[in-house]
Amino acid sequence: MHAQRRFRMSAVIAAAALAVGAVCGTTAVASAAPHKPGGITGLTASVTAHADTSYDVSASWNTAANATSYRVSITKGGATLASAKVTATSWSPTFTASPGTASLNVKALAGHRPGKTSTISLELDDVTPPSGAFSTTWDNNTGDATITQDSLTDNGPVSAVTRTVDWNDGSAPEAWTAGTTINHTYPKVAARYVPTVTLEDASANVNVVDVPAVVIDDTEPPTGAAYSVNRSTAWASFTKVKVTETSAPTDTWSPTPFITRVVDWGDGTSSPIVDGSATHVYTDTTGSPYTPAVTVSDEAHNSVVVETTAVVVTADTVAPKVKLTLPKAKHSVKAFKTLRGKATDGQTGVKRVFLKAVEKRGASWFGYNAKKHTWVRAASKKKAFAHSVAFALKTDSLHRWAAKLAGLKKGALVYKVWATDQVGNRSATVTHSATLTRA
Description:
By secondary structure, the protein is mainly beta. The chain has three helices and 36 strands. The longest helix is centred in the N-terminal third of the chain and has 29 residues, at 2-30.
């Protein structure tokens, strides 16, 4: 009988174990990791190169089995040029790189489980021509001219760049094979020549650079230039003084666009005239008045100085003044929801009016945040002002300003107002307190 009981108990335990195993097996199947994604097939890409050394890539591939997304990247020489995680089977990045061979890498992801990476090569063609800067000198007596290479750059080896000079006098182009200078003799007669240097890199990208003109036997400066100044007084560090060309210069040999005009402002600074004018802000008053003068030079470096009229520069040392406009209802919350006043400055003018507000409600202080339009609780009046964020207000044509306080309640309102002018002078701070007892 005991044997039969033990048999029945064993059978029950076995059945229970089978049942538990079945449940556990179902759970295991349900929570199993995703199947490994399939490999990438049909991977293709096209590359478009631009002269600014940027590249557009358009890549695509076939859908991989079990894939939920794809990890893509472009690498070159151990560096990652572009990368992304995409759900589509295409990718179109833009990046900047040097020419050469790069790799496009794509692998499928099933959740976080990666598949095998597929890689193809991308040829990043060189379509950027070399660039250079050159200067010229010459001797009027002999006609001997020299071109000097001031700089030469390329996105490939500069040593592979070839240089060819066309002296623009009917002679055959000349290969510039070595050094940073090359010489040529022009006829000793008055004439203007504009040489060119043709630069070509190893990828057959060509750039023809105009060299500054050689003007043989030109000894006369430009004539006819005239200039005016837009004002006779200016505030230091604020007022823009403008010199305008009222009559363009002319020259026997140099075309007007190749005649330079540079303004000497008289304070140790200068600036070129561009599109007929130049502007300047004086910061120093020790040399006042200043008289701007324009140096006009042709391509042969003949020059003439044309003076304008004097500008008296004065420092603004006077701070703005701030006044409050108080409402008639001295204890009304509604009346103080908009704070008003005026700010004036008789010199450079008011730039900004600043206002900070705090309020005591019961035993608690609150500082007003003008950016978020909210009140911030603080432990004291001093800390409320420290935590508050000021209004930065502009004045209207009548010098008035206004600031609206959102969420103002009954309590003891205190606000401080000050202003700055255009050169940073700050007014005295005006403080006002109001006890608000009614809505």
